[in-house]
Amino acid sequence: MSVSRRDPADTVNADDFDGAKMVVFIGDRIVTLLRDDIETIPFPGFWDFPGGGRELGESPWDCVWRETREELSLDVPERAVVWSRQYFLHGTTRWFFVAKMAASAERQIALGDEGQAWQLLWPDDYLAHPKAIPIFQTRLSDYLSDR
Prior knowledge:
InterPro entries: NUDIX_hydrolase-like_dom_sf, NUDIX_hydrolase_dom
Largest sheet: 8 strands, mixed
GO molecular function, one term: catalytic activity
Organism: Shimia abyssi
Shape: globular
Protein name: 8-oxo-dGTP diphosphatase
Radius of gyration: 15 Å
Helix content: 10-25%
Order of helices and strands: EEEEEHEEEHH
């Protein structure tokens, strides 16, 4: 299912995007990544989801798949995606995906070269966490309310 939400004040080409993020459910919990504690990045030391910036020519799925492999060594098949949405904010387009994998997929996870740690959290715990990135709390809430 793909749904988009557009702010009428935004004027962007929907085929152009800057990056993508993905919530990956491993069983009933979600994979989170503790961002590096570097002052020059947004939300240092906060809990994030895998994903990041687009490389030349990538589709939204290619971008988030590559980033998830790089950050967590997790190979999420496209058929695992259960929800996606485009978000338009401040003249940029970002994609947000939700995928579901079996609990056994936890064995695949290994921290890449970004982030300090990874952790499986219950969705409600992420939504209430004081060190969760607020915009991603909202996007997770969007998915949970659409289910």
